[in-house]
Design brief:
By secondary structure, the chain is of the alpha+beta class. The chain has helices spanning 138-141, 203-226, 259-279, 287-305, 315-327, 343-365, 367-381, 388-399, 404-412; strands spanning 20-28, 31-32, 34-38, 41-45, 58-65, 74-75, 83-85, 94-96, 99-101, 115-124, 128-131, 134-135, 159-169, 174-177, 180-186, 192-198, 234-239, 244-247, 250-253, 419-425, 428-433, 441-447, 452-457, 471-472, 482-486, 491-496. The protein folds into three domains: 15-19 and 66-280, Zincin-like; 301-412, Orthogonal Bundle (Neutral Protease, domain 2); 419-509, Immunoglobulin-like, CATH 2.60.40. The two termini are 42 Å apart.
Amino acid sequence: DPDSRVLDRIEKLSTDDQGFLNVVGLKQDGEALKSSVAGTVLEVQLNKVIEPGETTVFKMSFKGQAPLIVRRAGKNSKEGVAFSMAQWYPKMAEYDFEGWHTPPYIAREFHGVWGDFDVTIHIDKNYTIGGTGYLQNPQEIGHGYEDKSKKLKKSKDEKLSWHFKAPNVHDFMWAADPDYTHDILKTDTGIDLHFFYKKTLEEKYLKNWKDLQPKTAQLMSFFSENIGKYPYKQYSVIQGGDGGMEYAMSTLITGKRSFNSLFGVTSHEMAHTWFQFLLASNESKHPWMDEGFTSYISNIASNKILDKKLENPHTGSYNRYFKMISYRTEESLATHADRFHLNSSYSTASYSMGNIFLSQLEYIIGKENVQKGLKKYFADFSFKHPTPNDVKRSMEKVSGIHLDWYLNEWTQTTHTIDYSVRSISNKQIILQRHGKMPMPIDVRVTYKDGTLEDFTIPLQMMRGNKPTTATVLKDWSWSHPVYRFKVSKEISSVEIDPSKLMADIYPADNKK
């Protein structure tokens, strides 16, 4: 279905407002190369093969025009930001053990190659720039970057040359506007947080941007402590773009928001840094590994920092998943980000089901093991473009539990979870699996004398069980839809999954 944010807006742009990138020339070690364009991909025929361990130098000349912003990047946003410059240069395609990754770019997900960027931007001196990289000439530029204890070297030219360097990133974004306020918050961790927002905003929005700043410092600390250390010296939150989108060392977000909305989008986009830019799984091929994991950790961060006291901060993701199932529009998480039949199915699969992948894993291997597994995943695979199997192995190593079945069922099929308490007779309980996806089962039994007892039934394929104080029963084979067990006292009620972390699509029969 058409993206409602785009529809026919692109085709209605005038020639002056359309964007383009045209490669004018490309050389390898000084010799011109033959190339052809296929959609958004430039196919190049090398003059000589690059063997493993060898180096070569490419030099490209290109000409581009910034479009009137429709999605992600361009000029003159709805909030009046002059330039939101993402995807503004030809990017190298990633090549790895799977081969070349060359999906057409349609303003959704992207996958890139790490490198050291050295970028100089020449622009009218009244513009302030924020984005990826460290400014190399702050005393020549000013605009809030300068050391106030040193003299500013003011240029008499009408344009300034902003020189940025960004080490070991796979993208470079910048935004510019003549009305930006530029605030810098220096944190105890040594990371400078930069904030760029229009000084012409209404007073209520200006206050929100000020209030956001100490909370952003808390977010940086939370993500560093719960995933892994942020390796750069700065991060920028910038008003620009058309919603919220993550970039290297920065994010573009719209600025006319309530405080909770402003904090929420900042939390989500900042969390992307760890998954999209430091781990950098292939978000085009496996969007759930980025969007879902980002949603998971940002939900937890928001719950803590804003003191929401939610027992399950992921309830929204579960509800969106259940809604999709009720509409029968589910598609496998293994679907490429650009090839879902419905935009809503893409969003629910990538964001909500990806989130549930981890929150439900807390139910399977235990919350502490998921926390340890996330840190191990980052420690082992940052800057390595991990795959779904790498996530699985990280969680297996910390928990000792086999998870191949879980990765397969949740991400490669559309099987659903549905269990019920079939019957209670005297002291015997019968459980039944109705859905195709098997799971370990937690059961809470309330006895007639008022006491409670928790039981857990491992799935046989797990070859183990999570740390628990519950009574561990004999494991349940996936091939048997019915499970029976007896208890020692008269039963008042039986409930499956009192934690509500299992994504059972029909929970009404989970209690009897």
